[in-house]
Structure formats: structure tokens, C-alpha cells
Write a structure and sequence with these properties.
Blueprint: H1 2-19, E1 26-30, E2 40-42, E3 50-52, E4 57-61, E5 64-69, E6 74-77, E7 90-98, E8 102-108, E9 113-119, E10 122-129, E11 132-137, E12 152-159, E13 162-167, E14 170-176, E15 187-191, E16 212-221
Antiparallel strand pairs: 1-16, 2-3, 4-5, 5-16, 6-15, 7-12, 7-16, 8-9, 8-15, 9-10, 10-11, 12-13, 13-14
């Protein structure tokens, strides 16, 4: 009963925030692979969200659960307006073990969004804001680290006039002068896409998903 009351309180609070057009800040999504039960992956946030696991497997590594992706597999996160960026700083954090090239994660509608992927063994990010598409990646001049068959922590930060990519807590790329990420109905998908999201059809992003594993996926608004 207490759990039901808590869920109702948080749902009402979220609805009130949306009506006021003031979305909350903090962790909006935090997939909890340790508590996956009955084919549902919960999110460790104040706002209840359960993602169907589908055909993906949960495997154990170094005492932690991870979500394993085989060729052609993907995970769709149920949509909520709480997961739509609203011009505030939008932060995406992923810890992944990529075995092959392909999209690791994306969030987009028909006009805006981002795609995080591995290409030729390197992590790259394409972002579509406003009327332009830009790419964040390590500099060729300073050398680019291959992350194939290695754990890598990817952090993408997008806010007004600034986009930043960190790999393993090291800044590798910064783009200035671009607008913040803003829009409705930006759907989140991990892994494979049957067709490339509309904002990235001419950007060089691979439509196929990576194979490998993810043991952490978070989104924050601040």
C-alpha cells in the first residue's frame, strides 16, 4: 500500500510539473539491471518507469549485471514527457563493452536528437539541433583510442552554446555555438535500428546496432 501511495504521489508531482511547463531536474532515467524481474527493467529514479527486456539477455560480469546485445537486437525505452529535453543541460551517461561497430544509443524525433555509436572502433556522436548536424569525436591529431572489446564510459553533455563528449572521464571533444537540445516525443533506443532515425539519414551514422553489453545507462537534466 505504501509503495502504491508513493507511486501516485510521484505521478501527481510529475503531472503537475508538466502542466506548469517546468520539468524536474536530476536523474530522469537510470536503468537498474540488478533489479530486473519478470522481464522488466526498472529505473532507479523518483518517477516509476519499467522497460520490457524483450529478447535481450542479462549476464553477470565482475559481480554486476549487464544487458547483452547480439546482432540485430535493440531495447526501446517507454516514452515519457519527463524524458524529453527542454533546453536545460541534457546529460547522457553510458558504460558499454562494444564488440562491433554500430549504434549504441540514440534519442530522437523526426527533427532533433543524438546518436552515440562506434565507428571503426572509435566512439562518435552525431547531434541534430536546430538546422544543423554536428559530430563529436576524438581529434586525429592527438590520437583516437579504440574501445573495441574494452569497457568505456561515455558521457555526452548538451546545453545552450556547448556540447561536450567525455570518454572514461576525459574530455575528448567540445563544440561551441550550437543550440540546446529541445523537443517533444524524442524516443530512446539502445542498439539496432531497422531504419536510421530521420535526423541522421545523411550523417554517416550506421543504422545497425553494436554488439556487446551495457551495464549502466543514465539520463540527467540539470
Amino acid at each position: 500500500m505504501l509503495r502504491l501511495i508513493a507511486i501516485l504521489i510521484f505521478a501527481c508531482a510529475a503531472a503537475g510539473a508538466q502542466l506548469a511547463d517546468e520539468l524536474p531536474t536530476g536523474i530522469m532515467l537510470n536503468l537498474d539491471f540488478e533489479q530486473t524481474r519478470n522481464g522488466l527493467i526498472p529505473s532507479k529514479t523518483l518517477y516509476p518507469l519499467y522497460t520490457p527486456q524483450g529478447e535481450l539477455g542479462i549476464e553477470r560480469f565482475n559481480g554486476r549485471n549487464m544487458l547483452a546485445f547480439q546482432f540485430g537486437q535493440s531495447l526501446n525505452i517507454p516514452h515519457s514527457s519527463l524524458l524529453d529535453p527542454n533546453g536545460s543541460e541534457w546529460i547522457i551517461s553510458i558504460r558499454a563493452f562494444p564488440l562491433t561497430d554500430g549504434i549504441i544509443a540514440s534519442q530522437s524525433n523526426d527533427d532533433h536528437g543524438y546518436a552515440i555509436y562506434m565507428k571503426n572502433g572509435h566512439i562518435e556522436v552525431s547531434v541534430r539541433n536546430g538546422h544543423s548536424t554536428y559530430t563529436l569525436k576524438e581529434s586525429e591529431r592527438h590520437g583516437r583510442a579504440k574501445v573495441t572489446k574494452r569497457w568505456v564510459t561515455i558521457e555526452l553533455r548538451i546545453k545552450e552554446d556547448l556540447a561536450l563528449l567525455n570518454l572514461n572521464r576525459k574530455r575528448v571533444c567540445l563544440v561551441k555555438g550550437q543550440p540546446a537540445l529541445n523537443g517533444e516525443n524524442l524516443r530512446i533506443r539502445l542498439g539496432n535500428h531497422n531504419t536510421l532515425p530521420a535526423p541522421f539519414k545523411n550523417s554517416g551514422v550506421l543504422s545497425t546496432g553494436f554488439t556487446g553489453a551495457i551495464n549502466s545507462f543514465k539520463i540527467l537534466r540539470q
